[in-house]
Amino acid sequence: MQVTRRQFFKITSAGLGASSLAVMGFSPTAALAEVRQYRLARTTETRNTCTYCSVGCGLLMYSLGDGAKNAKAEIIHIEGDPDHPVSRGSLCPKGAGLLDFIHSPGRLKYPEVREAGSNEWKRISWHEAVERIAKHMKADRDANILAKNEAGVPVNRWISTGMLTASASSNETGILTQKFMRALGIVATDAQARICHGPTVAALAASYGRGGMTNSWVDIKNADFILVMGGNAAEAHPVGFKWAIEAKKQRGAKLIVVDPRFNRTAAVADHYVPIRAGSDIAFLGGIINWLIANDKIHWDYVKAYTNASLIVSEGFKFEEGLFSGYDADKGKYERGSWSYELDAGGMAKSDPSLEHPRCVWNLMKAHFARYTPEMVTNITGSPKEGFLKVCEHLGETAKADKVGTILYALGWTQHTVGAQNIRTMAMIQLLLGNIGMPGGGVNALRGHSNIQGLSDLGLLSTALPGYLTLPNEKAHPSFDEYLAKNTPKAVRPDQLNYWSNTPKFMVSLMKWFWGDKATKDNNWGYDWLPKWDKLYDVLQMTEMMHQGKVNGLIVQGFNPLASFPDANKVREAFSKLKYMVVIDPITTETSSFWQNHGESNPSDPTKIATEVFRLPSTCFAEEDGAIVNSSRWLQWHWKGAEPPGEAKSDQEIIAELFTALRDLYKKDGGNVPEPILNLSWPYKDPKNPTPEELAKELNGRALADVTDPKDPTKVLVKKGEQLPGFATLRDDGSTLCACWIFSGCWTQAGNQMARRDNTDAGCGNTPGWAWAWPANRRILYNRASCDPAGKPWDPKRKLIAWNGEKWVGADVPDFKIDEAPGSGMSPFIMNNEGVGRLFAVDKLVDGPFPEHYEPMESPIGTNPLHPKVVSSPAVRMFKGDRERLGTAKDFPYVGTTYRLTEHFQFWTKSVRLNAIAQPEQFVEIGEVLAQEKGIKQGDWGKVSSKRGFVKAKAVVTKRIKPLTVNNQTVHQVGIPLHWGWEGVAKKGYLTNALPPFVGDCNTQTPEYKSFLVNLEKA
Amino acid sequence: MALQSLDILRRSATPTATPQARNPMEVAKLIDVTTCIGCKACQVACSEWNELRAEVGTNIGVYDNPIDLSDQAWTVMRFSEVEENGKLEWLIRKDGCMHCAEPGCLKACPSPGAIIQYKNGIVDFHEENCIGCGYCISGCPFNVPRISKEDNKAYKCSLCSDRVAVGQEPACVKTCPTGAIQFGSKEDMKEVAATRIADLKNRGYDNAGLYDPQGVGGTHVMYVLHHADKAPLYHGLPQDPSISTTVSLWKGLLKPVATLGIAAAGLFGFFHYITVGPNRADDEHDEHDGSAASTKETSK
Fold first, then answer.
1. How many beta carbons lie within 10 A of that of residue B253, not counting itself?
2. Of A350, A240, A118, A322, nearest to A630 (Cα)?
3. Nearest CB to A270 within list B3, B43, B203
4. Best interface-test mutation with A: which of B3, B4, B5, B63 has the largest number of A CBs within 10 A?
5. Which of A280, A473, A578, B205 is the S-S candidate for A531 at Cβ 3.0 to 4.6 Å?
6. pLDDT at position B293 over 60
7. CA of B285, closest CA in chain A: separation in Å?
8. Structural domain boundaries in chain B
């Protein structure tokens, strides 16, 4: 050791001075050792649910004050609720920072307006705001609503004002918004689901009958193998991912990540396999081929529970990259040949031996035979051994007592082939017998805290609550035609075919819309509903705005300027609006799109005539209500404090707007007033319906005594009582229900969503916690967890079983409760075949089998499977946007956008704690590419596409490696998207200036995950 | 109000013995680096609970942020990209106070009661007694304490002694999404670690092991590492940390010598005062010299 003279001095003298004093009697007092006082001793504790993602973690919010009138509650701390079965006290970095969301300097406190041409916000009163907005809306509606179409069908369609709805708002806000919009005739409406998980609903419903995540968060712990692909569960859903780690720790489960980047999920995985963004179907199709070739099939399951044996129509073909029925001029398929061959009785023909050349099994086998491991590696760039490792691990789960699961999210949805990505995995899980099984399923990890709820409530252009469709003017001009086309007939004998109850759901919904005004004679008010002519998804809506065909846009809890693709086009589109209404708790780039922020937002306010109203709304902590997590749990939450300033709840804002409009129509008349004047608005305070009132309507109640169809003297539900569940819905007007799948959430026994019994009934299932749709079932299709005789496939994973009289177990059976095994009824009760679909018949627009198509911007410019059909032939693309596509010549690298675990969308840049954890925009670049470009760690880089550019810091990493695709080197550039100019984080560029303005063929969810960019040192 | 919440094992620069009759359980935080997803929930929860807000920084080309510990950031995630056995690994280590059984900071601290070690193992800084000299930093083998530029006092993780005192786990532990951070008796945590290590060995990590370095008497924050034989892979975690010899010397050999010296100086002063009269001390000069020394230490 070396002790310098100075150190010696310090050690012995300066340091010892103090302790020596003690020696001499100057002993420090005992007070020197007290720990900090515990902060929460007398605070008020309120239970809530995290507002960010769809894991739906439980919160304990602590506020100052004990509720005394003279004390104003103020939330001072938030931590996880240890009773919550999923989160068990955990919160991710977003949830852990919620306190700074509530107290964000970006919270809006007063209504404001930005007048036409102005460069500033002006505070106005609520009264002025509501009056002015109502006046705008009425003027536009009266001028532009279409009462009848050319065929004379009442369509009540108002497309010159659009509305976007709030993915973090409660079900109660959502359903009131649904009522408000449809009464006005709004069809140009979407929720966040359109730009995130639209393809999930399309693909899973087409395969299994429902569009939701099949299993639940905790259930992931029952898996033997977990594949994370098309998502990044550890970063996007950290607390849900707890259960993947639990499976690893407790069961020794293996975890494999397939992703363009070695991400933070890969950091804890057993294996990581790189893949080129946009080539997932090639990879998954290769798995199907491998499973068939290596006989890793759960045969008993496939034969009993899938449509493998059904015979497909003779006209069905797949040749040279096209399915039968393609109309090249329209760029669409005529889907008639994508069907079963029916017998005389209308039943699909079947060959249980699977020998018929046109049975689904043989068509599937032939279709995927092209996806050899060599083809897979050529298209995906994935190393062959990595691909085979995934095949082998998945293949193991074909055994009855081995189960695998898949966790995915936007990495699969946000492609032109988004729905088909998911379809491919849905097929794999059927082949392996992993659907309905604890530890299995296709787990779609939804994005926002209530985007599942908003999807359930039909807050999408062509939807109504409970996955009923909004009437289409051509297909459903009359109520009878609506029912005829939406009430499917079973195509196999003895099936439950639950959608045969559509009339009950629809009539009960209409009774909710129109109350006493809905009668059998007026077809329950059917003509007052708006009818759509085409899908007004967010891309269509923005395109119309861009063409100057839209006057108004109401933006509730949404940030479309930052969220929609091709932000430069979106900004131009907004600039053409007459008015915009933004309802939000925080500042958004959308509300200030007219501001000039240099090259990141080059607006000229003097040239923008849009009047922008900014209305402050409450956030989760300041309201009661329920939100639906990814596992379909409706969880009730409670208000913990008053909102800041003059902020109001979304329900109150919507109700004030509606009553103001209704008053105008009453007073002044106007165009198509009937739906507005006849709308049922039975709320105690018409200007502020309570969450309780709305939640009870979601559940539904009896308007007359509901009797047992088998014994009409037996009253099941008395008039005025809350319904016990959707089984008691009627199509004679005697029941009212705003969303049939939510029926059961608030029964005569009270609010089921507020239940807090976290007892594990088996397999981690907690049926007493909150309430799950449908009918409190936690694992969908759970009848398929048993063999046809009713015995669990795996005795260690016993969820339900037949006890000789009925189905019983830890979960609510997803089946007719007293239907004995052997009756012929199959487990997929929403499908009219009763079985899972390997062949999706005509349910999707781009093919009954998935096929690999290149992204719209492809780095290889060809499709090795069929060079004549490179990208998906069923893509919808507007003319101007096609011209805005780049090629690999100018934009040689694959760009892919994503989220970071420290941030949530564009919200948390307003949250100090999260801004600290990830302060500044960056792009991720592999070492090889960085070296080629002369870019070093922390340098500024410029990433550009044909549509725009961002400048950001360079994170140079080993975690992105160049891939060899079709004999050429492909580099990928990772582009996180959380930045903008509002908030407390460092200002940045809108990442969505880069992706193309084109969406998934089925749902128009934009292709954010794979496009072409160039990279330069900035 | 002295010792009622947590029993004290020792206090810095305080020879007076603390009551030792009670023997509370030793606690430990186990950080399983192999299941850490680097989400930084622990960072955020720590700052939220302890009411700390670092400056919003910049990105310097890595995921780490804040990029270092500070008086406003008591724990930070350290990301390291390494290639081991031909396989890319992203090692993510939660950095912060290790709560050593033989705390170098406490031993180096000259200010009475500025650093407290509770009998449960927590090493806590009591800033009201801190004189900002920075010796804790030189005493710490893990380079953890930081001096605030605002108040010139040293700060670090308290293992949420306020929460532990009322029977709760630390904020970082509670929030950890994957259970990579756990809390309990040190004995239990070693058992949990053993289970994890067995699992890791099954998965091919032959050198997986527990990091509980004996050079500092063991720690009350322990790591499970995939490569326990290569601790420095984890963003420079010392393989065999020990208290710097300077500090050991002071507390060991030199302290009695110096005490004698001071006593002698005191006696000398006393007799000098008696025999010669009062002497003027150059206080200003001493203070200047002292602060210069502490600045140098902090900048190390």
1. 10
2. A240
3. B203
4. B63
5. A473
6. no
7. 13
8. 8-233, 245-298
Q: How confident is the model at residue A23 (pLDDT cuts 50, 70, 90)?
A: very low
Which of A447, A480, A495 is the C-terminal boundary of a domain? A447
In this structure, are A395 and A299 located in the same domain? Answer: yes
* A912 DSSP 8-state letter: H
Strand A771-772 relative to strand A318-319: parallel, antiparallel, unpaired? Answer: unpaired
Residues in chain A closer than 8 A to B59 (CB atoms): 918-922, 938, 953, 955, 986
- What's the domain count of chain A? 4
Q: What is the mean pLDDT of residues A860-878?
A: 98
pLDDT-derived band at B213, boundaries 50, 70, 90? very high
Per-residue pLDDT tens digits for B262-274 = 666 666 666 666 6
Give residue A65's domain range. 44-102
Q: What's the Cα-to-Cα distance from A451 to each of A56, A174, A617, A631, A905, rounded to whole Å?
A: 11, 10, 18, 12, 13
Which of residues A447, A473, A492 is at a domain's end?
A: A447
Tokens of B48: 């939220």
- What is the DSSP secondary structure assignment for residue A347, as one 8-state letter? P
- The ipTM, to two decimals, is 0.95
Compare all CA atoms of chain B with the CA of A941 and give the residue at the minimum distance: B61
Inter-chain touch A21–B112, beta carbons under 8 Å: yes
In 3D space, the residue among B81, B92, B79, B232 whose CA is nearest the CA of residue A957 turns out to be: B81
Question: Touching check for A820 and chain B: CB below 8 Å?
Answer: no
Overall average pLDDT of the A800-812 stretch: 97
Q: Name the token pair of B98.
A: 């290790």
Amino acid at A339: S
A655 lies in some domain:
yes
Nearest by CB to B250, which of A12, A264, A957?
Answer: A12
Q: What is the DSSP letter of B236?
A: S
| A958 vs B contacts (CB less than 8 Å) | 81, 83, 88
Give the count of Cβ contacts less than 8 A between chain A and B.
286
Distance from CA of A79 to the nearest CA of B (A): 7
Nearest CB neighbour to B43, from listed A7, A17, A917: A917
Put simply, whether A239 touches B (Cβ < 8 Å) is yes
Q: Answer yes or no: do A245 and B53 touch at CB < 8 A.
A: no
Distance of CA A948 to the CA centre of its chain: 27
Answer whether A181's CB lies under 8 Å from A163's CB. Answer: yes
Position B262 scores a pLDDT of 62
Comparing CA positions, the residue from A452, A809, A851 lying closest to residue A626 is: A452
pLDDT for residue A66: 84
Q: A136: helix, coil or strand?
A: helix
Q: Which residue has the tokens 């900014």?
A: A614
**A779 within 8 A of A497, measured Cβ to Cβ:** no
The answer to the question of residue A840 being in a domain is no
CA–CA separation, A55 and A57 (whole Å) = 6
Kindly report, residue by residue over B22-40, the tens digit of the pLDDT.
889 999 999 999 999 999 9
Q: Model's pTM, two decimal places?
A: 0.94
In this complex, the residue of A23, A27, A262 whose CB is nearest that of residue B259 is A23
CB-CB under 8 Å, A38 with B135:
no
Which element (helix H / strand E) includes A403?
Answer: none
Interface of B with A in 88-147 (CB under 8 A): 88-92, 108, 110-113, 116, 124, 126, 129, 131, 133, 135
* CATH code reported for the domain at B8-233: 3.30.70.20
Alpha helix stretches (DSSP H) within A145-279: 171-184, 198-208, 233-236, 238-246
Token pair recorded at residue A637: 């939450």
Give A790-795's long-range contacts (Cβ < 8 A, gap of 24+): A790/A820, A790/A821, A793/A301, A793/A400, A793/A401, A793/A433, A793/A437, A794/A400, A794/A401, A794/A403, A794/A437
